[in-house]
Every structure is written in structure tokens, then in C-alpha cells.
Amino acid sequence: MDLKPIKEVALLLAQNRDKTIFAFSGAGLSAESGIPTFRGKDGLWNKYDPRDLATFEAFQEDPLKVWKWYLWRMWLIARANPNPAHYALVELEQILPNFWHITQNVDGLHRVAGQKKYLELHGNIWEGKCRYCGAHYKEHEFKIIFPLADRDYLRNLSEEKFKKEILEGLTLEKLPRCSFCNGIVGPGVVWFGEPLPEHVLTQAFEIAKIAKVCFSIGTSAVVYPAAYLPELCKKHGGVLIEINLDETPLTPVADYSFRASATEILPLIVEELKKSL
Ligand code: BV8
Ligand code: ZN
């Protein structure tokens, strides 16, 4: 591994230590925690068509199928742990006073790793959202109306029990009902065609506009409006650093492009940064 660009990035961070700096992350950040990505070689979407699962229309048509898919992802996430890349981003937050982690991921692994300053652009898979009356259920409220969505329950569920109790055993009657309108409650994530949470998006755009450095980590940068963020930072004179196993639309405009995994590069950058402090 040529450490020269790593050292240059670490120096850039040290020189801009008090400036706004953010990491924009996608499914590739959690890939090494065992969570499948959406568009990579073994990406989720390859087996499923997003229009079939991550839209309100699909949910209205077949809430059972959509909930089985989400419970499968929640089961994977409940059994996953943050990886060294998640922890490196927590260390960046501890070293850089104006650091933010803006993620498209709904798995919440950044919270488990200890991240405090984060924005979740596409919601959180552990929460619930009633799309009929707009009611929002935080994680501790949601598991009351949907006991199957309990993280500890799922973490301890073996594969055969998961198949039996959920993939085969889940029925419409077991799906969560809204306490206000009795509609079937869906996962608290942003589906295609749904707006991102207004206040989160506004804050994310504010950060991107003033940030001196943007890391784009493990994202194919094709989903909008989230994918505007690295472009916005670049447009306002920021330095764009991409960490991705593959090329993306951002690669040609990135100031640094590490064709490697997040778990390899981020800890190296943090280590070099600590040396220069
Ligand atoms: C909106 C949450 C408007 C759910 C997701 C037609 C009709 C309607 C809308 C549109 C349309 N055409 C375009 C749009 C806009 C649409 C969009 O952008 N579509 C794209 C696909 C063209 N956007 C929307 O619909 C958004 N809403 O526009 O609303 C509106 C406004 C007002 C009022 C009403 C409506 C909503 C978008 C959010 C959709 N929700 N997920 C869930 O997760 O189940 S999107 C989904 O994609 C995930 O959130 C994911 O985070 C996101 C982006 O994917 P990535 O995170 O980048 O993951 P991916 O697998 O693609 O890439 C992984 C990368 O990591 C790869 O590059 C890989 O090489 C790399 N990698 C792998 N391993 C590693 C690694 N890198 C480093 N290290 C490793 N180890
Ligand atoms: Zn409701």
C-alpha cells in the first residue's frame, strides 16, 4: 500500500482540523460487517427489484412480502457488529471538532460503534413509519406493536428458527398495526419516491456547502438527492476523497480515490492523523 496519499490526506485533515469535515457513507461501509450491499456483485437489488420491495406501492400490494424482506435484513443487522471502518469514523469525530457522519445506511451500526454526530438520510430500519396517517415509531415504541422487530430477539434467533418463525410463520395478522389509524405500519426507512426527512436533508446540505473535506465511503453515488452531497462539497471548493472497491460517477472528480476497502483505508488515515497531532 502506497502510504503517500494516506499521509497527504492525514495532513489535509490536520491542516483543516477545526473546519467542517464530513463522511458520506453507503452500504459499502457495512459490507464488511456482513450486511449485503445493494448494487455490488452480490448486491441485494441483484436478486430483487427495488420497485418490488422498497416502495409504498409494493408495500400496499404485498405488505407480507415487504416485511419478510425487511425482517431478513433486520435479522442480518441484529447479528452484525460494527467493523474497523465504523470505529475509525468515531475516532475522526473525537479528533475533529466539526466532523459529521452523514449516512444513507439504515442499519444503525454507526450508532452501535459510538458515533454521536450523524445524520441518517434514509431513516432507520429499527423504527416504524405509518404511511397512512404519518405516525412515527421510535425503536422502543415500535417493538411494542411489533415484537418480531426486537433487536435482541432477532440477534438470538438461529437461522432455522428465523426461517420457521418468520419466513414461513409470518402472517398478515402478525404485522404491526398503527395505534392511531390501525393501518399496517411499515419500516422507518425512506423508500423510492418518498421524500427524505426535511430537517435532516437541509442540515446535510448546509454541512456539505461549508465542508472543507468530504469522504465518500462505500457508496455507488447513484441515489438522489443524497448523492448531491459530495458534488455540493466539491462545487463549494471542498476536497473530495473517495474510498470504494469500484469506480463510481464520483471517481473522475475525486481529488483522492482509494480503490480499496473502507476497513483498510480509514484506520490508516486515522493512524497517520494521530501522528501529526
Ligand atoms: C425522492 C432505504 C422525491 C430503504 C433507499 C423516478 C421516480 C421517483 C424517484 C426517482 C425516479 N428516478 C430517480 C428518482 C430519485 C430516486 C433515485 O435516486 N433513484 C435512483 C436509483 C436513480 N430517489 C428517490 O426516490 C428518493 N426520494 O427522490 O423523493 C420526492 C420529493 C418530495 C416528495 C415526494 C417525493 C429516495 C431515495 C431513498 C431510497 N431508499 N434505501 C432501504 O434501505 O431498504 S436507497 C438504497 O440505496 C439504500 O438506502 C442505499 O443506501 C442507497 C444507496 O446505495 P449505496 O449505499 O450506495 O449502496 P450500493 O450497494 O449502491 O453501493 C455500495 C458501494 O460500496 C459500491 O460502490 C461498492 O463498490 C462499494 N463497496 C462494497 N464493499 C465495500 C465498498 N466500498 C468500500 N469498502 C468496502 N468494503
Ligand atoms: Zn397510522
Strand order of the largest sheet: 3-2-1-7-8-9
Number of strands: 9
Structural class: alpha/beta
Strand content: 5-15%
Classified by CATH, the class of the largest domain is: Alpha Beta
Amino-to-carboxy terminus distance: 23 Å
Q: Which ligands are bound?
A: ligand BV8, zinc ion
CATH homologous superfamily descriptor of the largest domain: TPP-binding domain
Please state the overall shape, judged from the principal axes of the Cα atoms. Answer: elongated
Give the topology string: H per helix, E per strand: HEHHHHHHEHEEEHHHEHEHEEH
Mean pLDDT: 95
Helix content: 40-55%
Walk me through this protein's architecture.
- It is a single chain.
- By secondary structure, the chain is an alpha/beta fold.
- The chain has 2 domains: 1-34 and 82-122 and 196-277, TPP-binding domain (Rossmann fold); 36-79 and 128-189, SIR2/SIRT2 'Small Domain' (2-Layer Sandwich), CATH 3.30.1600.10.
- It is built from 14 helices and 9 strands.
- A 6-stranded parallel β-sheet has the order 3-2-1-7-8-9, with helices on both faces.
- Strand 4 (123-129) and strand 5 (136-137) form a beta hairpin.
- Helix 7 packs parallel to helix 14 (262-275) and helix 12 runs parallel beside helix 13 (228-235).
- The radius of gyration is 19 Å and the shape is elongated.
- The model has no long low-confidence stretch (mean pLDDT 95).
- Residues 26-28, 31-32, 37-40, 43, 54, 104-106, 122, 189-195, 218-220, 222-224, 243-246, 248, 261-262 line the site of ligand BV8.
- Zinc ion binds at residues 130, 132-133, 135, 178, 180-181, 183.
